[in-house]
Amino acid sequence: MNQEKRLVRFVYITSWAIFLVFTIGGFIFKPGLFAWGVMAGGVIVMTNFHLLYRTIKKALNPSNLVHPKSVLGKYYVRFFLSAIIIFILISDHYVDPIGLIVGLSVVVISIFITLFYELKKLISKEAI
To answer: How far is it, in rounded angstroms, from Cα 100 to Cα 111?
Structure first.
């Protein structure tokens, strides 16, 4: 498996693990709107991450090159749909905004974990 696929897979698996830990932790330690916010934010960000991966994978397929405007268009549609969903969730008080922010940060946290993991491997490889 090449390095890019390995990194995306690691981010994907780590994101799901963090999402599950945060969601279960939210329901255990702060049940109610906060926990639902964590879960809603995690679902939104994980869905967007998966759809972005599929869009880029199709766009970079050599047999089916897609125009960059198509990729950007899909990105902006997802962005505006996510913004509308987040606005509705917060304005109608379905979720706690802090919990939503925690849930929306799941992929970012997993990317940082991946970065530190890869840096650790790189540094330990150079030390040998």
So the answer is: 18
